[in-house]
Amino acid sequence: MNKSDMHAAPPQVIERDAGTARAAKSDGPAPAPNFLRAIISDDLRTDKYGGRVVTRFPPEPNGYLHYGHAKSIILNFGLAAENNGTCHLRYDDTNPLKEEVEFEDAIADSVRWLGYDWGGHRYHASDYYDDLYRFAEWFIGEGLAYVDSQSAEEMRATRGTLTEPGLDSPYRSRSVAENLDLFRRMRAGEFPDGAHVLRLRIDMASPNVNMRDPAIYRIRHASHHRTGSAWCIYPLYDYTHCISDALERITHSICTLEFQDHRPLYDWIIEKLAGGGMLERPLPQQYEFARLNLTYVVLSKRRLIELVDKGFVDGWDDPRMPTIVGARRRGFTPEGFRLLAERIGVSKADSWIDMSVLEECMRDDLNARAQRRIAVLDPVKLVIDNYPEGQSEDCFAPNHPHKPELGRRALPLTRALWIERDDYSESPPKGYFRLTPSAEVRLRYGYIVKCTGAVKDESGNVVEVHCTYDPDTRSGTPGADARKVKGNIHWLSAAHAVPAEVRMYDRLFSVPFPGARNPWGNRGGADEPAPARRTVVAGDEDPADDDVERNYLDDLNPESKRVVRAFVEPALAAAAREERFQFERHGYFVADLADHAPGAPVFNRSVSLKDSWAK
Ligand code: ATP
Ligand code: MG
């Protein structure tokens, strides 16, 4: 069956034009309005929080941050900054089994790289373990929590469905004294994992499944990367998150849409605690926005881990990975991400953003700031037969066409040059204005040359192109423009050019919805967000999203990385790591963060000059 036959209505994919159109509107000093900005300005106007705006970015330290997190970071830190507020970096470290210090450091680095500062407000959910425990005992004392001793399966089976209410646990009516005793013994380590959980006593018949006596503590005999073996019971996400927010006096707690159904629980917990005098009012308020979904990549941690572990990419910071560390190595810019965030905006409706929108943001930012340089990526010799052997002269190229203040640099011209192999053709297609026998082109910033033919090897490959030059046509000299030629090619002096490794990166996947056989019907493709985490009653979370119809790994783009031996202009040998350039006629490149060295240059292609994926 033809792939396109299977699709009914396409999901909303925001194409480049949409993004650009919106950007035009949002250009200028005032940020574009969105519902979160409106809420905050309302709260400031009504003085709901005494003028405070405090947001937080709450990553779980179990992996590297991806492009989706960038949206959340820019939103949370950005909203705070716009309103002279603060944004906290809070590690949500409630799962001792998966979290590591290595990830914490990488997360902090990524936030800083994106241009944000938590100003000393770096916290951990584990900072609040004592408070969380104390509050849990308070809930027990109030008759609002009980120890349930059912098995995980029993709890799952009695949880009900979207249409049927759940069933009360046989342990629901335990006395306060018994609950307190059991909970303290859970903490003391008397019971094995899974023997009991602590649940809130809310309403097993609630139409909202999250309100059906959610578990808030479970037994986990595991060492935690920060609290070591101090605890063998750990609080669950829904319980921890709202209390952490309230303790930090967060005003606007912004999260992704899948948490919408958790909001009543969020409010229930902190309202009760505030009512009991445990938390200060005004309480934080949760708001939800649509997560970033991007075509041609996957943004689920589980898949990113698989790509790294199975060696499909060269690590977390592989420039093809949609991670922040990957983006940095790719040569993407923090400003480009902020441009993306502004262009796509925030909304409450799920949508997909086409990769071309992100690429265009990077191009727009790099175009404005990157200095121009020359590189020949697929070199073939061009010999100027009437140019004296041993002679050399400097041609001058501007560092930026729109920024004369950035000056210009010398490009030595000699008799033997490197040019791009495809700038010569013996049987040119229609509209080809470059080198073909007897055609004339301008050597950019140099002379007009006339092609006289080429030398080939036994198998017919061009090894050397020949030409003659017209000494009266040097760029920038009087009368140089008298003769018009259509072609204009770049070149490097073979005697001066520096060999370089250039890694030509492209999209990681070759289809917009990796792994989705029917991307339209399959809940938006393989990267559909998993249900909000830690919604379990007990036992292990991480429900496997296994309704994907084919393996997303089959959609990896075999052309996503191509390494070429290129020549670059002499100035590039001295480039600093992470310095970004436009290689004329090719695209934007960055000196590799890890492998580039003076004398052994390595460049990564960040993005091509034009979108080669557009249909
Ligand atoms: P997990 O599978 O562990 O839940 P996660 O990608 O949701 O992974 P978190 O560490 O929980 O990672 O995310 C931290 C914050 O980033 C959360 O507030 C979350 O809502 C937000 N976030 C995660 N993915 C996206 C996305 N695609 N777009 C916008 N925000 C996101
Ligand atoms: Mg999450």
Give short descriptive properties of this protein.
615 residues; alpha/beta; seven-stranded mixed beta sheet; 13 helices; elongated; disordered N terminus; binds adenosine-5'-triphosphate; binds magnesium ion
Provide a brief overview of the structure.
The chain is of the alpha/beta class and 615 residues long. The chain has helices at residues 16-26, 35-45, 67-82, 101-113, 129-141, 152-157, 176-187, 237-247, 263-275, 301-309, 324-330, 334-344, 355-369; strands spanning 13-14, 54-57, 86-91, 122-124, 145-148, 197-200, 215-219, 233-235, 252-256, 285-289, 352-353, 371-373, 375-376, 379-384, 393-398, 408-413, 416-420, 440-443, 448-456, 462-469, 487-489, 492-493, 498-505, 561-568, 580-583, 587-591, 602-608. Helix 1 (16-26) packs across helix 13 and helix 12 packs across helix 13 (355-369).
Give me the count of strands: 27
Low-pLDDT residue intervals, each spanning 5 or more residues: 1-11, 16-28, 519-548
Shape designation: elongated
* Ligands bound to this protein structure: adenosine-5'-triphosphate, magnesium ion
Total count of helical runs of at least 4 residues: 13
Cα end-to-end separation: 22 Å
Mean pLDDT: 91
Structural class: alpha/beta
Subunit organisation of the chains: single chain
Percent of residues in helices comes to 10-25%
Rg from Cα: 30 Å
Beta-strand proportion: 15-25%
Main sheet summary: 7 strands, mixed
> Within the largest sheet, what's the order of strands?
12-25-26-27-23-24-13
